[in-house]
Amino acid sequence: MTTQTTILAAAPEISVAAVAPARGEAPAPLSSRPFSDIDREAVLDLFAEPDFYFRTVRPDALAQAEILELVSEDVHVILAAGRVVGLYAVEQAGADHGCHYELHLRLREDTPDAWWHAAYHAVVDALLWRTEIIRLVVRAGDFDPRWQRILHELGLNDEGVLAGVVLHRGQRHGYRYMSRLWAPTASAAAPASLPDEADAAGVPRACPPERIAGYRDGHAHLLRGHWVPGELIGTAIAATGRPVLAEPHTVSAAAAEQELYVVPDVGFVRYAELDWIHRRARLEIGLREGAEGRAAAVLSAAVRFGFTNLGLHRLYGWATSVSGIGGEAAATLAAAGFRREAVIPDAVWFAGRPRTREIWGVVDDDA
User: Fold this and answer.
1) Are 313 and 210 in the same domain?
2) Among 129, 132, 237, 267, which is least packed by CB within 10 angstroms?
3) In terms of DSSP bridges, do strands 213-214 and 314-320 run parallel, antiparallel, or are they unpaired?
4) 23, 39, 53, 30: which is closest to 119 by C-alpha?
5) Quick one: pLDDT band at residue 255, thresholds 50, 70, 90?
6) Tens digits of per-residue pLDDT, 17-40?
């Protein structure tokens, strides 16, 4: 059994048009979203094409139930200019720690080759944004000359054909395996030394109060953003340089051993890994884009709420180099009573490389 990996963002709902591109047309802006019921008819229409070889060698012969089973879990639809033009999925191949993945990608027959190239690069860029890749493999049937040609044009390595493994239109055929390899990525440079708490003297400790409220279904939009997963102060990473199809991180509202709250219109506050016996929790905050200036006030409110309302004794959390630990962020943590407790090199992969993380903690005697 393989483990599926989802990597692209859920795009806003976009109406599906039925306008085919011209053969020489340049790549249209791409977007993506996880397959859902709104895409059902468009996806069924994709499989009406006899050459739509997405995880199958007989797309137009599949029953509706078989198609929906193929796209039920890890599949994303690809949209170009609002039209559903293809599907992709990424599966982990081999051991969990191997950094090996298999890509399934298919576009409509009427899309130009340039769109296939653009879709491949967009998916790979988004995958590299979230995880390290050592080997990515794509397979093409030896009965599928267009896909084989495109993969060669993309510069993938030809690893050969596994012959006779599939029956296609009455004859035995094989799959050609194409791959791309990456060297293990060197660590990001360690962050500059962080200031001591005394350096935070210029940061006001008095912050405007923020109201922490219980989570409701209507707050779901606050649980999704381009911050580092699990961050103590999660602020959105700038769109500049971020792959257009990079998936925002999503916090589960139903996770066990957590207390989830929101600051309305600002972000969420989560007390995770709760240990009620020892009265401690890992604090996680995610701020919507544009609310970065309220980080200090939200942090102060979250600490106060955890100690006063939840009766916790210790709070701790992760601060990551890509989020700007050092300088103002470190001063904000220190001003709220946090102390740096540990530095963990290469603790998380984010934005295309391993990142250093720090553990910062506060106990109620210090707050």
Assistant:
1) yes
2) 132
3) unpaired
4) 30
5) confident
6) 333 444 455 566 889 999 999 999
